[in-house]
Amino acid sequence: MLKSIDRIAIFGAGAMGAAYAGLFTDNSDIRVCFAARGDRFARLDGATINVNGRDYTIPVVHPDRVDRPFDLVLVALKHHHLTEPVLKDINALTGPDTLILSVMNGLESEKLLGHVCGHEKIVPAIAAGIDAMHENNCFTFANPGRIIFGNDPAFPNAADTDRLERIKMVLDQGGIPNEISPDIIGTMWWKFMVNVGVNQASAVLGAPYGIFQNVPEARALMVALMQEVVALARHRGINLQSSDIAKCVDMLNTLSPDGKTSMLQDMEAKRKTEVEIFAGAVEAMGKEDAIPTPVNSTFFNLIRVMESN
Fold it and tell me: For residue range 82-93, what is the model confidence (pLDDT) as tens digits?
């Protein structure tokens, strides 16, 4: 019989973290809490958050005050917040049976988490299609999207399907659409391609999803960014094709026209963006593989200049 997941800690109380906390609270008896220290702990402890018009008081745990390991740690941080001290805080909440699910952007979080917490605990994942937003201390989403996850053949426990079933069971309980991918690495590269395209184009254009749904020129910019990712993926033996770009367009058409990417929200709030793990990573891989990436190189420079204003 599968060991149930009864206690979940979420690192990251932004738009996605708040959405998932609200869904778990609404749909299950699972004990869910945020994890933080310092100013973030003080801000969250006893605070009320509003998700889709409903108020929630989600408990918060301090990593130095954990009496027993959590069953699942869900990591929903920005890449630049996944520092060495935070990685140690995540590890403090884990035990031998803990599973770690990262819904962070980019291709590196699983490796970083595995290095500190143990690769055997990591279940690679992406969040696709969620249109969560954070504005004026309120969180909203029209589409919860899906969490897609699977086993990485390069990690220990790659043949252990029971842990995938445990995660599926708890996500089902939380009312969170989900899917087990037989090729999670290819799926992660697909999500990376989506982020490189729509996140960066939206940030430079100041465009919500509706612009990409209705303006061909906006879609063309997005596609040009993604085509460079496809070229890199194919060179590296990743199963990503030009036809996968069409899947991205189909997904975008399911999102709220007024919804905004996380990068556009960061730009509007004058927060640090994740351009280093998008265009920066594409540019770096392009140099390694001798594959030109002029569109991403241009967007990298544009976004860095926009961040500095």
Answer: 999 999 999 999
